[in-house]
Design brief:
The chain is built from three helices and three strands. It has helices spanning 2-87, 93-122, 148-161; strands at residues 128-132, 137-141, 169-173. The longest helix has 86 residues, at 2-87.
Length: 176
Amino acid sequence: MAKTEKAEKAKKLSANAKKVLVLCCMVALLVVTGVLNYVLNTRLNNEDQNVINNNEEDAVATFFSSYRSNRETARAEEFNYLDAIIASESTSAEVKATAEEKQVELLSFIENELVLESLIKAKGYDDAVVTMSTNNLNVIVNKAELTSEEVSKILGIILEETDYTASEVYIVPYTV
């Protein structure tokens, strides 16, 4: 009888050991599931953040390129209008001279805008758009906020390169 008791105890131990083993496996699976959930959620959040950042970068790039494109289109229309005035036989010599002066002024604006944009970018800004007219100069800088030091730096460039006064210059940060 001693052998049967030992065999029964061994079976009981073996049954208890099986239960413990199954329970340990279930706890291990629960831990693995939690770790995988954390890792996958972290990756998904990082990918979502990258998509958001890429969309913002695309919006900024689109804004600056479309702004330049619109500016060039408007200038081309102005040149066409002035060319039509100059080419017209019914236009007086005085009006033709004024139209030619306006064309020279527009060419000067275009050249100065490109130079100023390049100088502002050289100071560490990702992008900038400059628009000049006879009355004022507008600067849009690719930065959400500008400190007074940054505004002073940009204003310094403009005042050195142009004849505008500080009150005629408008510097605006671009925010998405």
